[in-house]
Amino acid sequence: MIPRVHQQGSNTLGLLHYLYGKGTREEHIDPHLVASFDGMATDPGRDPSVTKADLRHLLDQTLSLLDADQRPDKRVWHCSVRAAPDDPILSDEQWGDIARRMVAATGIDPGDGAGCRWAAVRHADDHIHIVATLVREDGRSPDHHRSGKRAQAECRLIEKELGLRQVAAGDGTAAKRATSAERHKAERKGRDRPARDELRETVRRAVAGADGEEEFFDRLAAAGLLIRKRVAPSGDLLGYKVALPDDRNSEKEPAFYAGSTLAPDLSLPRIRERWALPAEVASSADGSLPEQPDLPNMTGPAFARRRATAATWQALLIIDHGDDGTAAAQIAAAGEMLDALAKTSAAHTRAQLREAAFVFERAGRSHVKAVRGHDRALRQAARDLVPSGPVLGRGEDCASTAMLVDMAFFLAIATANWHAKKRHGQQAAAARQAAEHLRAAYQAAAGAPMAVLCQRGQRPAPRVRQRQADLLQQVLPGLAARVQAEAGWPALAATLDDVRRAGHDPAALLTEAARRRELDTATSISDVLVWRLRRGAHLSALAESPHDTPARGSRRQGPSAPSTLTSPSTVDDFSRRR
Fold first, then answer.
1. Beta-carbon neighbour count of residue 505 at 10 Å?
2. Does residue 558 surpass a pLDDT of 60?
3. CATH fold group of domain 2-162
4. pTM for the complete prediction?
5. Closest by alpha carbon to 428, among 359, 376, 329, 506?
6. Could you tell me whether strands 32-36 and 116-124 are parallel, antiparallel, or unpaired per DSSP bridges?
7. Cα-flanking dihedrals φ and ψ of residue 517, to 5°?
8. Cα(233)–Cα(564) distance, rounded to whole angstroms?
9. Domains of the chain by residue range
10. What ranges in 537-573 are assigned the alpha helix state H?
11. What is the pLDDT at residue 515?
């Protein structure tokens, strides 16, 4: 159940006209009162002899207690309360009780017999609107400070009592949602998202990996945004605003949004924090980018993804075991990496990666202050991804992307678990939602390279395949039968052979890969081990071509079905598996 306290206004009758009107899209059906301050307010929705002006006069009577020059300019309080889409339809009596609890919790009518006058109008199954005049019966102003947070807290109680969907509690760090007017405007213009959301995404992508103001603003301009900078008399840059070229306000001028109104961490001072590097970090190796050896047939985009995978693994360990400040910094930097990955993704993974980055940004903000500097490995990884561009057709094709998305998936789950431990409900939910999109992106990216590996794994002679099965039984005796029954087992067998050919000890590396996180609850253990082994042995993510000559004594067979992402039905404990 979502309460929303709207900006205070000065026109009670204008708001009533909207509440009792047809709506902007004829969506208001049977508007009527469900509750009021005295339980006896006249209802212009059900009584044809009553007008909206009559209801306005009743609500505004307390204004007469004050001299004209003492009446507040912003005297209309407006709150909407909306149920979740999958909640049961509540009765008028239930909505009336909810309205009474809302005005009591927010201080509008605390139950002392002298509260503000208010009325609750229902014009749809799933929500009500409460309108009140901000002058009490005793002429005083109501104590409605922080009424939004108070309404949220009361809704959490109502959800539990009525068995409704329990919405994650907020902490005031979320980006401001688009208003109904902005959403309707986007629909009229045929936009997928409101301008506010589109600008926030574009600015986030411009920030991802940028190393200074000049590059940041160059990226904004390259994205086609209009930019307005706020400059002090001294010449110092204080802030910025951005607008879409074709998004105009009522004066037919570009509708500009300040960075801070798009999201709290997109103000210029907060963006500058990402570029600052404390001296103690600059002089240490803790924030350095993990080194990667030269790999065969590795091109720029694939190499950038391999380095991003290593940085993501490093960030995952810090989130699991580091202090709160460095963990918060890694989570924020992970958002930049996902933005950069989505920006350079191939068409068949782009939609899911874009959605993953879009929802993960909520996980990047909390009241835990990020200690910047130690996150530079992940930020540098984001910076490398952007100029390297898409990898498809340039080296390892989707294999290095699959490897990175696989790791990013576990990073998202580690993030969800970190936030859950700190009772950051909205952030934890956002990270889990991002993980679901990453899982879908992985399945799209991994299909082709896993099919190649599976095809290679089916080609060797029976004695070679038996040797790999014996090795698996030796290292993972409790899981060997399950792994061999998976569709991805041939891909794992091919990878074990690649590990041996590269001069490594397959048993030692397999033992290490299995030790990193438990495997019992994984849906496809093969997938997990394939990417862990290929990364740990510094193997190219994409195996040799399936059209190479088959090994002597073996037959060429068709590719096995691509295996699925390693995930059980729930994702709460995924962070243990890497």
1. 12
2. no
3. BirA Bifunctional Protein; domain 2 (3.30.930)
4. 0.77
5. 359
6. antiparallel
7. -155, 155
8. 58
9. 2-162, 180-274, 282-442, 454-576
10. none
11. 82
